[in-house]
Amino acid sequence: MHKRAVIVIDLQNEYLPTGKLPLTGIDAAVAHAVTVIAEARRTGIPVLHVRHESASNEAPIFVPGSDGVEIQAAVAPREGEPVITKHFVNAFRDTDLKQQLDARGVGEVVVIGAMSHMCVDACVRAAADFGYTVTVLHDACATLDLAFNGVTAPAAQVHAAMMAAFAFGYARVTSTDAWLAG
User: What sequence ranges are listed for the domain Isochorismatase-like (predicted)?
Assistant: First the structure.
């Protein structure tokens, strides 16, 4: 069995109802993330936190130094848990995430966080492309409604489509409870 790590993607204040980009289901996703992180800490599974920060103070969201870029208190890193700051959708791009995982001998990653259709998606696909075994805990992720060409897809459908795509070719997709049950 590969050594496992939990990657917590962008569970930041910007996604709360008080933030500039509130997500549907963020409270439930964070509640599940709290459980996942607690179990990882209890069992010695490394927890790596990823936070998005715009490269410019002129950006409309994730402005450096703002409250929005802060990791939510409920899932705040503990001393010794790495925080990888990224400026792109993909947590592996121009960061040391892969080096951090490899230094720990990780072969399997468990991905939770936000947004299902963007940063979670990019991390899952990149991790799979790098050869990691990937598990996504669908109920510890959140997203929002998307619109394109006059069609609006509700967040639940966006999320379901992403999870179906992961399960088709990139990851094992399961619930927090099923993952905890082992």
Answer: 5-155
Instruction: Classify strands 172-174 and 133-142 as parallel, antiparallel or unpaired.
Output: parallel
For residues 52 and 86, the answer to whether their CB atoms sit within 8 Å is yes
**Sequence-ordered strand ranges (E) for 115-150:** 133-142, 146-148
Q: Which residues pair with 110 in a beta bridge?
A: 6, 135
Max Cα-Cα span within the chain: 47
Report if pTM > 0.85.
yes
Contact at 8 Å (CB) between 92 and 57?
no
> Three-state DSSP class for 142?
strand
Domains and their CATH numbers in the chain:
3-181 (3.40.50.850)
The Cα 9–Cα 18 span in angstroms is 19
pLDDT digits (tens, 9 = 90+) for 130-165: 999 999 999 999 999 999 999 999 999 999 999 999
Interval 93-111: pLDDT, tens: 999 999 999 999 999 999 9
